[in-house]
Amino acid sequence: MNGSKAYLEIVSHYESCLDRHGDSHLGVDWPNRADAQKRYEVMLDVVRSTDSPVSLLDFGCGASHLYEHMVATGRAGLIHYSGLDLSPKFVELSRRKFPELRYYCLDVLDGGALPEFDYIIANGVFTEKRGLTFEEMFEYFKATLRAVFQKARIGVAFNVMSTRVDWEREDLFHVPFDSMAVFLAAEVSRHFVFRHDYRLYEYTVYVYR
User: Is the full-model pTM beyond 0.90?
Assistant: First the structure.
């Protein structure tokens, strides 16, 4: 990554969605609420066992809709949730909604200090590239995932757009399976799972230690 922080354009885009649509699935730029709920289920499947409590960081937490889903489905008791977002607007909103939870507003690529968690989930953080080129977005993705994985004791989950689609949108981040696998095996971990089975135009990756 260069010093321009071009990825902040993505943060600005999501803040504009919040300004237009408020605290809703549209406010975090998910066009369909049912699909957003499906994503939360797939993301939480990274947790292999909840026989004992585990800690989870929602990286790019937005309005903490993942936590709301956890509460609604009875998972909040055994998964201890924290949230992180680059956007002060989203962190302020989440803190107002859930003052009992811990939130971080920092940039892991800018020296922001972060404790370790059992699991880290990045839902929607890498699906849109907006005006970035594929190469710029891939470099941002790789740098961020390397930093995040260092803070995960067990594993991470994230989603990107699939190339197994009828057509690719220029503003979205479509990543070929081979490119993803080569990067993960060489620089993160050889223990990973691709989820392409939930009927959306994306795939989710679980990466374990």
Answer: yes
